[in-house]
Input
Amino acid sequence: MATVKQLMSLEGRVSVVTGGATGLGLQMATGLAEAGSHVVVCSRKLGNCEQAAQALEKLGVKALPVAADVTQPDQVEAVKEATLKKFGRVDVLVNNAGKAWVAPPEELPLERWQQIMDLNITAPFICSQVFGREMIRQQRGKIINIASIAGLQGRNPRAYSSIVYGTSKGALVNFTRDLAIKWASHNIHVNCICPGFFVTPINQKLFDSNREPILAEIPLGRTGGADDLKGIAVLLASDASNFITGAIIPVDGGTIAW
Output
């Protein structure tokens, strides 16, 4: 029987985090590294990836910075090849890269709709397919999709108005459930984290202008903090979650419990 410390350890594991150079992706990458995992930091800007990798290596693990557009299958394949060349394996994939476009539904440009859908749902499919093939070969893997509570409910437009974001994240929620069923026989666990409102450099201006209605929707009375996604990411990446798959887990200060 394993101890809890052993179950939660990621020593020697290899985790790939898309959108891992900044914001929530970097927070989760840091948590995985603190638990002992080597980390592949993937984002479009190599400089950001390199900076994040340097910070992660100070935690005593190895980190590989790789620039890629995860909506492009050939670039995702290149990330996988770089991962295998350096580490020889892949244990965890965190599909975190994503984007929103704030606009009333009647004003949202079609090209923005397609851009967000490509990044928020097509890219997780591409990454899961590419890295999943390796996990199937290994007969082991953990896939963690980062959706949002916007994918679980309609949102008050006074707080946040992005119908394409909610739609794409709702699709990612059910993608998680179905992929978990499809790949359970390969010992691949597929789960989904649904963050509530976390202030990041991308949405700082939105929070500053909508602070009151945003906070009014959160029973705990605050936005997500710098450590609030680390624990759940490590849990879902570790052996402590070996009987959890297809789970949709809100981390939202109680927002959807209203």
Summary: The longest strand covers residues 188-195. The chain is about 45% helix and 15% strand. The first helix runs from residue 4 to 8.
